[in-house]
Amino acid sequence: xxxxxxxxxxxLSVSAQYDQTPAPSACPQGMIATPAYGTxxxxxxxxxxxxxxxxxxxxxxxxxPPVGGVCSxxxxxxxxxxxxxxxxSNPLGICEVPDQASGPCPTDGVxxxxxxxxxxxxxxxxxxxxxxxxxxCQLGPTIxxxxxxxxxxxxxxxxxxxxxxxxxxxxPGVCPQEQRDGPCQNGQCRSGxxxxxxxxxxxxxx
Length: 206
Description:
It is built from one helix and 14 strands; from the N terminus they run H-E-E-E-E-E-E-E-E-E-E-E-E-E-E. By secondary structure, the chain is mostly beta strands. It comes from Diploscapter pachys.
């Protein structure tokens, strides 16, 4: 009888320890919330506001939580975590020549559309994979250094010295026209959309 009572008490104790925490989904935007067991997470994520938040990138690799909503150079915000890769929402910028830089990388890490911070975090350079040499992507030379909406100024070394206007649709990873919701507002979009920072466009999150 005494052994039965002891086993029952032990079972109740273990059960209580692994009860799912009754808390609403409260992960940072884009992360997937799963139940927490006490304060322990078994989804490879981290405990946050009573639930477990995923830290998986789209390619299955582990990501890291952003700091103040900002990811470090070379990573980008995907699924609510910072992930590496050229198809990230803020991939690396690469300058063929110093004159291609549009200016220094700002403190928030967001360059003008079509550009991203380089690996050193010093300059804004054309986004890696931006097909600015493709004639189908080029509208023509800039006029007084300006391009129409939807195009980015890019200095192409062997081309027009005043620079070319290049279609932002040629930036890798940009969503199709039918999945857009207009320009981002200070890096934010309405519910259901995510700011794709290389082109400053709100793309469907679905």
